[in-house]
Amino acid sequence: MRMYRGLLFDLDGVLVDTAKYHYLAWKEIAGRLGIVFTPKDNERLKGVSRMRSLEILLEIGGRKLDRKAKEQYCEEKNRIYLNHIRRLERSALLPGVREFLRDARKKGYLLALGSASRNASLILDRLELNACFDAVIDGNAVSKAKPDPEVFRKGAQALGLKPRECIVFEDAPAGIEAAHAGGMRAVGIGSREGLPEADGILAGFAGVRIEAVEAMLAGGDGAAGNPAGSGFAFGEGSPVGQ
Ligand code: BG6
Ligand code: MG
């Protein structure tokens, strides 16, 4: 049975394979600052704003910088990131994403982007994804970064829906937390180990249709609160996802 009317998507790491470019850019900045920065550390940066990411990096390295220096490092990080993004092609879209979005839209779901990135419009343009969304809320439209729910609340509002009518798709723990804080169900894109608080897990969108996501969420405990491990998981190759 259909329970939801709106779908809110994070961008980096959910729709497009850009999370690796954020990592590479921060890794370069970390090197310049003499900070050792591992892929595990990078998990803390996922989903959070550019400035907050730098602050976490400085925390990891036990370093302090004044406001002006922080702004310069953020600009530099973005310059490195944009060099990668310039080469982004339609193929950077993660498998099954375009089909999932088109199919859900055809079935009458409203779709919004809810991303911390200030580069979201640029990326949507490059991937020719703009037409898929009824609303786009990005890092330029919010004042509080995930795990604050602002980005998803604004997304639901822009669609004219209540939070409980929306499903959020997220690859970052901070994003799952933001969805829950906003009163929405959250589907994690990735693994159960990485996203223990998600209401359900998808390995990716390949072969997945919205009905299977609805069924997955209905099959969880369905009650208020989202205890770790309560959601079901499926993804590529799973019969329920075909
Ligand atoms: C999020 C990414 O989507 O956007 C973060 O997960 C990133 O890694 C944040 O820091 C801000 O992105 P941008 O493009 O404005 O630097
Ligand atoms: Mg993300």
Helix content: 25-40%
- Unreliable residue stretches: 221-242
Q: Whole-number average pLDDT? A: 90
Sketch the topology as an H/E string, one letter per element: EHHHHHEHEHEHEEHE
Tell me the span between the first and last alpha carbons: 18 Å
The fraction of residues in strands falls at 5-15%
Q: What compounds are bound to the protein? A: 6-O-phosphono-beta-D-glucopyranose, magnesium ion
Q: Order of strands side by side in the largest beta sheet?
A: 3-2-1-4-5-6-7
Contiguous helical run count: 9
Broad structural category: alpha/beta
**Shape verdict:** globular
CA radius of gyration is 17 Å
Q: What kind of sheet is the major sheet?
A: 7 strands, parallel
DSSP strand tally: 7
For this entry, give a set of tags:
disordered C terminus; 242 residues; binds 6-O-phosphono-beta-D-glucopyranose; binds magnesium ion; 9 helices; alpha/beta; single chain
What does this protein look like?
The chain is α/β, with parallel strands linked by helices and 242 residues long. The two termini are 18 Å apart. The chain is built from nine helices and seven strands, in the order βαααααβαβαβαββαβ. The protein has a seven-stranded parallel β-sheet with strand order 3-2-1-4-5-6-7, with helices on both faces. β6 (200-202), α9 (210-219) and β7 form a beta-alpha-beta unit. α1 packs across α4 (67-85) and α3 (50-61) crosses α4 (67-85). 40% of the residues lie in helices and 12% in strands. The chain is globular and about 55 Å long. It binds 6-O-phosphono-beta-D-glucopyranose (BG6) and magnesium ion (MG). 6-O-phosphono-beta-D-glucopyranose is lined by residues 11-12, 22, 45-50, 53, 78, 115-119, 139, 172.
